[in-house]
Each structure stands twice: as C-alpha cells, then as structure tokens.
Write a structure and sequence with these properties.
The chain is 34% helix and 27% strand. It contains eight helices and 13 strands.
Length: 264
C-alpha cells in the first residue's frame, strides 16, 4: 500500500484528491498538510472506514513514512514542498499552474534529485488532447490558423490557464514557431488582417466552469475543433493519483502525464 501525502488538503483539489485516494486500490492517505497559518491545522480529515488523519503544518511536520506527495497548491508552496521532497528523496506529483520561468527552472533543478511528475493538467482526456493537437497542427501546417480558447471559473487566479499555454506550446512546436513571438493573448480595436503565423490564446472567466479548452484550426473552406470539457475536478484527481502510483520506483527526473500514460 502506497502511503501518500496531500498538500493543500483543505482546497478544492485537495479534497478531490483525498476522496479519489480513498476509492483507489493500492494507495492510502497517510498525511494531509496545509500552510502553517491555515485555520484547519490540527483538525481531522475523515475518510471512508472512519480513517482519521490530522492536518499538519507542512511536510516537515508529517508523522510517519511518506512515499509520494501530491501537490496542487501555489507556485511558491509547490516549490517549497518539492525542495522538502528532494531533501527526503520522496517522489512528487505536482499539478500547480502559474509558475514563472524562474520557478520552472527551480522545479527542474529539484526534480534532478527526486522523481517528479509535473503537468498543468492531470486529466487523462486533456493529455490525449495534447497528443491530438500536435498531430493535427503538424499535419495541417501553415494553411490553418490556430486559435485556443479556454474557460474557467471566476475564482481562478492565473490567465491564460497552464493547460492553454501548454496547448499553445505544443502547437508552436508542431509548426516550428517561437511562441514568445507569435502568441496573441487579446485583440481589440482596428487590428488589421490576421498575420499568417499568429497563435491566438483567448481567456474566459465566469461562474463555476470547471475547465474548457478548445483548439481551433481554421482553414479556407473548413475548420477543425478539438475540445475538452471537464465536468468535475475528479478527472484531475484521478490523473494525479494514477501518476502517484506510476512514479514509485522511477529514477530522479522530470516526467509528464504523457510518460504516465505511455503516449509521449
């Protein structure tokens, strides 16, 4: 039985991950932790079967042996937790979005000391979308204009979503374009004709939308749309738990969900 620790245990994703662990064979919740000033520190997480785990302030105060950490928190919190994992040699699964280039470099550095799965979206369907997007963009080439539209709930803090940015990176790579030069994040006013090599990334925020991502490849006389709609955060939690089971025994390094699913 794999003993897992869940960071940000009281958040929306933390709750979903804990519920998924409880219903998955081969893994159990050993530790639930939050930031040191969280009001739920010292309270208990009750799981099916009346298993009780007390919420502790950070991985460093976690009792007992932990074999994998699952983290969907903040860029700063995830890096702090990954550093602790690297020091202890504990594998990590990180689904946090909104990291800067400097934070991504730090993540890469820590992952060289402990196996780490990092993905802006742990959904199995979204990672299949990534694969299909690469194939479609490479096949259709420059004659089709790529546009990405993403929609999330009004509480989401970063924009565009990490998933949309990853989708844009995949399309840019398939078309041999530099995303930093060709990405367009908004349009307003008299903008003139669309340049042939643009990659549009547009954001919608509102209500309780869990997550929607669409890649449009618009050509002359036709267009192709690849869409993923998340109905529940359970999809992300299932992917994270699957990654946690997969990473046990792997060599140190940075892995993606494509590695987990065997579709890289």
């Amino acid at each position: 039985m794999i003993r897992a620790a869940v960071a940000g245990a009281c958040g929306r994703m933390g709750n979903a991950i804990i519920e998924t662990i409880a219903s998955t064979d081969g893994i159990e919740l050993a530790v639930a932790f939050e930031r040191p000033d969280h009001p739920m520190i010292g309270q208990e997480v009750t799981q099916p079967g009346s298993i009780r785990v007390t919420i502790v302030p950070g991985l460093g105060s976690a009792p007992g042996e932990v074999e994998v950490v699952i983290d969907f928190t903040t860029p700063e919190g995830s890096l702090q937790n990954l550093e602790a994992c690297a020091e202890k040699g504990i594998p990590a699964v990180i689904g946090t979005t909104g990291m800067s280039n400097e934070q991504l470099e730090a993540l890469q550095m820590f992952s060289q000391r402990t196996p780490t799965v990092f993905s802006p979206n742990m959904s199995l369907g979204v990672n299949l979308l990534f694969k299909l997007a690469s194939l479609a963009a490479a096949t259709l080439g420059d004659d089709y204009d790529p546009e990405i539209i993403e929609a999330h709930h009004r509480m989401k803090k970063d924009a565009p979503s990490g998933t949309a940015l990853r989708l844009a990176e995949i399309v840019a790579d398939a078309l041999c374009r530099d995303l930093s030069e060709k990405a367009v994040f908004s349009r307003h006013g008299l903008i003139g004709e669309r340049p042939k090599d643009e990659i549009g990334i547009q954001t919608i925020r509102g209500g309780d939308i869990v997550g929607e991502h669409t890649l449009i490849l618009a050509g002359s006389g036709e267009r192709i749309e690849l869409t993923h709609r998340a109905h529940s955060r359970v999809n992300f939690a299932r992917g994270a738990v699957r990654a946690a089971l997969w990473i046990i025994g792997k060599d140190p390094g940075l892995y993606t969900m494509a590695d987990v699913l065997g579709i890289k």
